[in-house]
Amino acid sequence: MKPELSGLGGWLILIQIGLYLTLIQLVIQIVQFTIPSFDSEMWDALTSKEADFYHALWKPTILLEAVFNLGMFAFTVICLAMMYMRNRLFPKLMIVYYSVSLLIGIVDYALVQAISTDMELDLDNSLRDTFRGVVTCAIWIPYFLRSKRVAHTFVR
To answer: Where are the transmembrane segments (predicted)?
Structure first.
């Protein structure tokens, strides 16, 4: 085994940066959007049948996004811990992590798309995030499956 092909260097640096940026992004998402969505005024404006902005899918969409954001925050922390412990499960966790992120992105896009047929919503961000998820999976899942550095680093 070549020493340069083990350790948390190489392309794994980008994984580390991505996980930390994801934590920051999730905190911002939770503070700016998730928590305010549960404010009684906002919640009623979106989920009350008498409200102007009511749509039957707002409630499941808001709940799904809240569960996803909190779950992904915890999952990201677990992935970081497993990475620094060089745990052999880390590569599998990252494959699940990227796959779940993509799946939730697709479901979220479908829900927002369904809501937007009745309202004028900006779908560009949702579509861009879904496309980014596809590209991320296409790059990083094969990397975790084939990389010699990954195979040599995560052995505990």
So the answer is: 12-35, 62-83, 95-115, 130-146
pTM metric for this prediction: 0.86
Contact predicate 8/91, CB 8 Å: no
Residue linked to tokens 């799946």: 103
Place of tokens 């569960």: 67
Mean pLDDT by 10 residues, the chain (156 residues): 73 96 96 93 91 89 94 97 96 97 90 73 74 95 96 91
**How do the domains of the chain map onto residue ranges?**
3-153
Instruction: Give dist(CA 147, CA 109) in Å, integer.
Output: 32
CA 128 to CA 130: how far, in whole Å?
5
